[in-house]
Amino acid sequence: MEATGYGAVYFAEKMLNSHNDTLKGKKVAVSGAGNVAFHVMQKLYEFGAIPVTCSDSKGFIYDKDGINLQLLTRLKIQNHESLEKYIEHRKYATYTPREKFHKTRNDIWNIPVDVVMPAATENEININDAKIIIKNQTKYIIECSNMPSTPDAIKFFLDNNILFAPSKAVNAGGVVTSVYEMSQNATFEPLTKEVLDEKLKEEMKKIYVDIASTAKEYGFEDNLVIGANIKGFKRVVNAMIKQGVI
Predict the structure, then answer these.
(1) Given 31, 51, 83, 160, which is the most exposed site by the fewest CB atoms within 10 A?
(2) Which residue ranges form the domains of the chain, and what is each CATH number?
């Protein structure tokens, strides 16, 4: 989960860098409060970004000054408490219980931010959420969990020229790290945590470059969904050819 969260942020930074931008100073809406979300927020701070939201099954918090990870750890990991307790310790934070959410959308996406990084559940961003996100002039959507956006929301983002990074590429960090861990187990050559993290960073940057260049090659520049689909398809076909299947 640590690698998945860190990898998502490495991917995001490379994507922004490729568009003459950076995570530094960006306000970010993150959903979830589990391992992936926590490590996304942790790494965002390292890049100078400011995660201002997180959520659990009962509601979400908004902290304009940035989510306090030390407090979040104490509440969610050590004490297993609701996020509602967070506002008892943070004067300017707000808490919205799920029963007060709008019936047709997830209210966490109402918060105006530069970057949206869903890291909770499937289909947590629907078409109504997508319209609110674009109305708020959010520039980047980076999926950290498995398929958090519905197909019509994704289409709406792409139709409105929003830079959208699909989960099939963004959350590859866990798989990437597992490959290196299997390699070190087989060779008996231990890799330090720092070396593994650096390898993860480089692989996530490469994944972005590969799918972005593939999208451009086929006439769909900045459409990372198509780029990821074509790149994945070509890798499967090439593997089948090498194995003599086709």
Answers:
(1) 160
(2) 2-170 (3.40.50.720), 176-242 (no CATH)
Q: In this predicted model, what pLDDT tens digit does every residue of 41-71 receive, in sequence order?
A: 999 999 999 999 999 989 999 999 999 999 9
66: left (phi over 0), alpha (psi -120 to 50) or beta: left
- HSE at residue 55, side-chain half, CA atoms within 13 A, is 23
- The widest CA-to-CA distance across the chain, in whole angstroms, is 64
Q: What is the rounded distance in angstroms from the CA atom of residue 156 to the CA atom of residue 91? A: 37
Q: How far apart are CA 141 and CA 144, in angstroms?
A: 10
Q: Which amino acid is at 144?
A: C
Q: What is the pLDDT of residues 146-167, one digit of tens each?
A: 999 999 999 999 999 999 999 9
Q: Supply φ then ψ for residue 130, to 5 degrees.
A: -60, -40
Of 104, 143, 111, nearest to 126 (Cα)? 104
